[in-house]
Specification:
With 88 residues, the protein is mostly beta strands. The chain has one domain. Helix content is 9%, strand content 32%. The chain is built from one helix and six strands, in the order αββββββ. Strands 1, 4, 5 and 6 form a four-stranded antiparallel sheet that branches. The protein has a two-stranded antiparallel sheet with strand order 2-3. A hairpin with a 5-residue loop joins strand 5 and strand 6. Bound molecules: zinc ion.
Length: 88
């Protein structure tokens, strides 16, 4: 994704809470794992258990990083799954 498309996409994330008009702050959702924490990822379809434990992954290329925007006033959280939210 080039810089222009990235800026366009970032215009479509919330800066004002749709519930109370408070300020939204960007964050991310963490998954605790043994020995650390990981960024939550979005995958198409319902979750399915893996034979080996955990969940099935259909295609690693199709997984998207999730950003969580939280209202500083009421706590409402809105999630967005997009490539530009990958860890830097
Ligand atoms: Zn709010």
């Amino acid at each position: 994704m080039n810089a222009c498309r990235r800026e366009l996409a970032m215009d479509h994330v919330p800066s004002v809470c749709p519930k109370c008009q408070g300020d939204m702050a960007q964050g991310h959702a963490l998954d605790n794992t043994y020995g650390g924490v990981l960024l939550s990822l979005w995958q198409l379809g319902p979750a399915k258990k893996s034979f080996w434990g955990g969940l099935k992954i259909s295609s690693r290329a199709a997984l998207l990083p999730i950003a969580a925007f939280r209202c500083q006033t009421c706590g409402y959280v809105e999630f967005y799954a997009r490539e530009e939210f990958a860890p830097t």
